[in-house]
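Students often ask why we bother encoding 3D structure as a string. The short answer is that it lets us treat folding as translation between two languages. Here is a chain of 249 residues written in the first language.
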Amino acid sequence: WAIGHMLELVDPQDPWNMAALPISFIPWEKRPVAKTSAQLRTIGKLLKSARSVIHAGDPDDEGQLIVDEILQWAGSRLPVQRLLINDNNLKVVQRALASMRDNREFAGLSASAEARSVGDLLYGVNMTRAYTLAAQARGFQGVLSVGRVQTPILGLVVRRDRDFEAHTKSYYYTVSGQFSFAGLTFPARYQIGEGDPVDEQRRLIDRNFATAVAGTVQGQPARIASAKTTAKEAAPPLPYNLLKLQTDA
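And here it is in the second language, the structure alphabet:
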């Protein structure tokens, strides 16, 4: 079995200077991941004694690539059937085994995942070096790591942190009460009207106004101007299947 991606792209060894940018390493090279290299060699040996291969990687582009790149690394020319399993329920697995397809039909998925990984490395290598060298020219010591995913996420975290630091407390108020009609007691809430002091989310922000509204209606009779009843039907929730249980866990 595979242990995640067992091959990795080789980082370029070009010198860190602006004149060398942008760096291109197409065609790209891959090498075994050090911590799983023994398992990779074991798979390679098993492939030599096999007559066919069942590709049982995850049913997505990364799962497709993980196994495809191992087969390519091993130079395997064996026929490959694709087994698509997204639920470990026995009947689902049996149906999947009975409907395997030629692995070549999924070459596009594998190419998509590989293109993304190569693009990520190209972007990361060039942008990290460009930003780091520009910063070091201004006295910065260290490396400014830039990535297609990590940089936007870092930006979101920083923006959220700055919003938190700049946050000032604000208050809003609701006016609600209990009402009785025909032997029934039910809650009701004041509905915002035109000209009421509200924020951008239409919440009352003037305590004196809210207090005045409450004082005006407290103990006073109310009239139901209109009522609407809507019949709704809700199906009971389905029990867990194994995949959903593993996801939530």
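Translate back mentally: The domain at 7-136 is CATH 3.40.50.140 (Rossmann fold). Keep this in mind for the problem set.
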